[in-house]
Amino acid sequence: MPDTPKPGVYASVPFSVYRSWDAINSSFLHTLSARSPFHAQRDRENPKEETTALRVGRALHSFILEPATFDQFWAVCPTCDKRTKEGKAVYAAFCEAKGSRDEIGEKEMAEIKEMADAVRKQQCIELVCGGQAEVSIVWVDKETGVLCKRRLDYHRTDGWNHYITDLKSSDDVQEREFSRDLASYGYAMAAAFSIDGWKALTGEDSIYNLLAVEKNYHIAKVWEPDEETIAAGRDDYRRVLQVAAECIKTGVWQAYGEKPQLIRAPGWYLAAHGVGPFNAM
């Protein structure tokens, strides 16, 4: 059975341990909001295998946020054709040398280094200096009694202010496009969830920054969600947290409902067949 940690701030906890903790996180809430309680709980009970994109994302976090320990946890695999005898030998030697470390390819590592350089050159590095990386927090939500958790990419205190920085890679970090990610990927919800979780534990308010790094072009941009975005994210996570609390209480994680419901084909399909409001005269 997964461990159930006590409320608190936990540094230096491996991601695999954090992932095993039996508490609700923002990814769970986003899935519940976007799909259903059934989908969220199924993913929670049956974690999906890590994709290449997620693995590269973890390596990027490690290289930018904890560069001093990167080589302890990651090994760069030399480019080789594993279909050939020579390539198989090179890869076998690499696997023996890497031990239990995670693997990242040379091409992927080159891109990670370029993105890290963009953060440094564009004077964003101050957001991930002087604090702690990969800090896990656990708290009990007062309204629902649900145990919650969140993995903070980076947090630091500067003067009277406490900052939480979330590192994101994106295809496009300009305002028009990245603002959509706030809703589509649950970034607004995660921001409010992080701010409220930290305050529940420490009593401190936080300034939340999104350190967005554009893939391919390697441009870094810092975005701070405005008050209305945080308020919307808070309303979003509180709504689905109430649903999660009810599901935990009843043990029922419903999908799309059991009763039959009417469904309507898209307007373009109806119009093509001469029916629907577009054809009303």
Features:
281 residues; Lambda Exonuclease, Chain A; globular; two-stranded parallel ribbon; 6-stranded mixed beta sheet; alpha/beta
What is the strand and helix layout of this fold?
Blueprint: E1 8-10, H1 15-20, H2 26-34, H3 37-45, H4 52-65, H5 70-73, E2 74-77, H6 85-98, E3 102-105, H7 106-121, E4 132-140, E5 147-158, E6 161-170, H8 175-184, H9 187-202, E7 207-214, E8 219-223, H10 227-250, H11 267-272
Parallel strand pairs: 2-3, 6-7
Antiparallel strand pairs: 1-4, 4-5, 5-6, 7-8
Helix pairs in contact: 2-3, 2-10, 4-7, 9-10
Report on the architecture of this protein.
The chain is α/β, with parallel strands linked by helices and 281 residues long. It has a domain at 8-37 and 114-250: Lambda Exonuclease, Chain A (Alpha-Beta Complex). Helix content is 46%, strand content 20%. It is built from eleven helices and eight strands. The protein has helices at 15-20, 26-34, 37-45, 52-65, 70-73, 85-98, 106-121, 175-184, 187-202, 227-250, 267-272, and strands at residues 8-10, 74-77, 102-105, 132-140, 147-158, 161-170, 207-214, 219-223. The strands form two sheets. A six-stranded mixed sheet has the order 1-4-5-6-7-8, with helices on both faces. The model has no long low-confidence stretch (mean pLDDT 91).
Average pLDDT: 91
Shape: globular
Unreliable stretches: none
Task: Write the element-wise H/E pattern from the N-terminal end onward.
Answer: EHHHHHEHEHEEEHHEEHH
Number of strands: 8
Largest sheet: spatial strand order: 1-4-5-6-7-8
Q: Could you tell me the strand content as a percent range?
A: 15-25%
Return the CATH topology of the domain at 8-37 and 114-250. Lambda Exonuclease, Chain A
Amino- and carboxy-terminal Cα gap: 63 Å
Helix content: 40-55%
Query: So, CATH architecture of the domain at 8-37 and 114-250?
Result: Alpha-Beta Complex
| CATH secondary-structure class of the domain at 8-37 and 114-250 | Alpha Beta
Contiguous helical run count: 11
Assembly type of the shown chains? Answer: single chain
Q: Largest sheet, if any?
A: 6 strands, mixed
